[in-house]
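Lab notebook, bench 4. The sequencing result for the construct came back, and we need a structural model before the next group meeting so we can plan mutations. Quick request posted to the team channel:

Model the 3D structure of this chain.
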Amino acid sequence: MSTMTAPARETVRAADRVAAARRRVTTGETIVQTLTMAWRALKKMRRNPEQFFDVALQPILFTAMFATIFGGAIAGDVESYLPLMVPGILAQTVLTTCMATGTQLREDMEKGVFDRFKSLPISRIAPLAGPMVADLLRYTIAATLTFAMGLVMGYRPGGGAGGVLAAILLAIITGWSLAWVFTWVGTIARSAQAVQSISMMILFPLTFLSNAFVPVETLPGWLAAFVRFNPVSHLVTATRDLANSAIVTGEVAWTLLACLVVIVIFAPLSVRSYKRHM
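Done. Here's the predicted structure in token form:
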């Protein structure tokens, strides 16, 4: 004879119904649920405009500061340095912007927001992918402001509008794929501060030890070898070729391949780690 009480049996049945409903979620429903979560994240951004401070101020400050400080020393003058630097700032800005994805995810988990999703028959990936879709707006703002500031300072991209748009699109795709890494970090870290610290330790060395701000030929041999291997350098070179010459080189293919590899590895890891909290 079962000793389970009626409330306990009802709880078990409710959990079974939720689990069964989740197993029946179709691809179309997953897309709709992801877009719903993206809309929720956009509404959250509207109510918290400070989330746009980094994407609005960082491109302007970094472009003006780096061009003024390093332009004369590296290229002889600011205008000659801009074709080298602006695509590098584009890559740096978009990649550092995607760090906020994991931090905000961890904050939501600490506040118990994701506990509300436990009883919902939704796709497991929707609460993760939704905010990342909304973050595409932040990447677009950051990338656009980077080129806008470069134009104000005298940058004239030889690739024209088409090359610039292609460079921005490539940077956004890369930022979105890399955000899966920080999403995974957000699901395993103990606090939002820990997510931010870990993300900075991962991304800042990769960004600054690249060809974003200096030619590889000016670096010591051992450092030049690392810079050439660094995936951020492939992104920077690809965006330079697109923005300055409207040329699609093999660097674009390498960058897209790296994006695919990151998504294939870290999207399942993020979902699996997230399910442990469900």
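The chain has one domain: 29-275.
Will bring this to the meeting.
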